[in-house]
Write a structure and sequence with these properties.
The chain is mainly beta. It has helices spanning 9-29, 142-150, 297-306; strands at residues 30-37, 39-40, 44-51, 58-65, 77-83, 88-95, 99-100, 116-122, 126-131, 134-140, 156-163, 179-192, 195-202, 213-215, 226-227, 232-235, 238-245, 320-321. The protein has one domain (27-321): Jelly Rolls, CATH 2.60.120. The protein is built from three helices and 18 strands. A hairpin with a 2-residue loop joins strand 12 and strand 13 (195-202). The chain is globular, with a radius of gyration of 20 Å.
Length: 333
């Protein structure tokens, strides 16, 4: 009888080296982009006027991130993420040690063909997601309490565009590159005594990356693209995040004009707002142009499980903290 032999240590080492080399080549074959605010903020309304990047396999996002988030300590993140070829919107919250609760609400309008106003509201009592003033989701109770306890250092605003895969975002056909995410404006309003007060607004009117902002230079979550500073540009009052082939970085076009003028949409609970329990499981399935699943609560929870994405790398540059940090915290400058 012939016995199967184990490969020699030298062969195993060579194979691992080849795998690592191929992974590195794969990561650099597509250049992605990330733009983020260097200052973190505690409580408030975080808003942006964004046109997400189209295409299957393209994840295009606006999110809040707590620097240093880790599955071994605590993880804080709030997301608006465009996924898949149909430009579906996924909204998500990460809390605890990396527990996420994604939902794919039904929304109207073309998320990749026009600008929309996206907003997070984070207060002592609730966390809510809005699009064009309509509430999509609201979390209360223990979810908010845990989230806030672990986010006392504040949250920083981030935008990025990167390559997903079959488990999240879709499979990219490189022939559709380049693709772009456009950001018309961003603003932050602090929260105190039951009301919001605007603290700053960024209209990207300058020629380069504005003060208080920085760009990413690390691999994206699946390692299928690498954030390249050359793929973040400010053109005609719009921040442009590009997803390009290796060696074809940058942006030379003209950003689409925001036909609504880019005014802030005040959040409202009206319309097709979705109320979510503290468990984070909503009761509206994706419908309309997103597949017409109808009102099937089980599908929402199951679809969320199928679309869970990997944790982000936790080696982002540390932010500084604003004067709106929670009372008693030592401010860092």
């Amino acid at each position: 009888m012939t016995r199967n032999k184990l490969p020699s240590p030298g062969l195993v080492g060579a194979a691992l080296t080849l795998i690592c080399t191929l992974a590195s080549v794969s990561a650099s074959a597509v250049q992605s982009a990330e733009l983020y605010r260097t200052q973190a903020y505690f409580y408030g309304r975080f808003e942006a006027r964004v046109q997400f990047a189209p295409g299957d396999g393209v994840v295009s996002s606006f999110f809040l991130w707590k620097d240093g988030s880790s599955s071994t300590t605590s993880w804080n993140e709030l997301d608006f993420e465009k996924i898949q070829a149909a430009c579906r919107l996924q909204i998500n919250i990460w809390s605890g040690t990396g527990t996420q609760s994604p939902q794919t609400p039904s929304v109207t309008g073309d998320l990749c063909g026009g600008y929309h106003t996206y907003a997070f509201e984070w207060t002592p009592d609730y966390i809510a997601w809005f699009i064009d003033g309509t509430q999509l989701r609201r979390e209360t109770g223990s979810v908010v309490a845990e989230y806030t306890q672990n986010a006392s250092q504040g949250m920083a605003i981030h935008f990025n565009v990167w390559v997903g895969n079959a488990s999240f975002g879709g499979v990219l056909d490189p022939s559709i590159l380049p693709l772009y995410e456009y950001i018309d404006w961003v603003q932050y309003s602090s929260y105190a005594n039951g009301s919001f007060q605007q603290q700053w607004r960024e209209d990207f009117d300058g020629a380069g990356i504005p003060a208080g902002w920085a760009v990413g230079d690390w691999q994206s979550p699946y390692g299928l693209s690498t954030h390249n500073p050359l793929n973040v540009n400010v053109v005609n009052g719009v921040a442009v995040l590009s997803l390009t082939a290796d060696g074809a970085t940058g942006y030379s076009g003209v950003p689409p004009v925001d036909t609504d003028g880019g005014s802030s949409a005040l959040p409202s609970d009206a319309g097709t707002a979705e109320a979510a329990s503290s468990s984070g499981c909503g009761c509206r399935a994706a419908g309309g142009r997103f597949g017409g699943w109808g009102q099937v609560p089980v599908l929402v929870a199951f679809a969320g499980l199928l679309r869970r994405r990997p944790r982000r790398a936790s080696y982002r540059r540390p932010p500084t903290f604003s004067s709106t940090s929670p009372p008693g915290r030592q401010l860092e400058g």
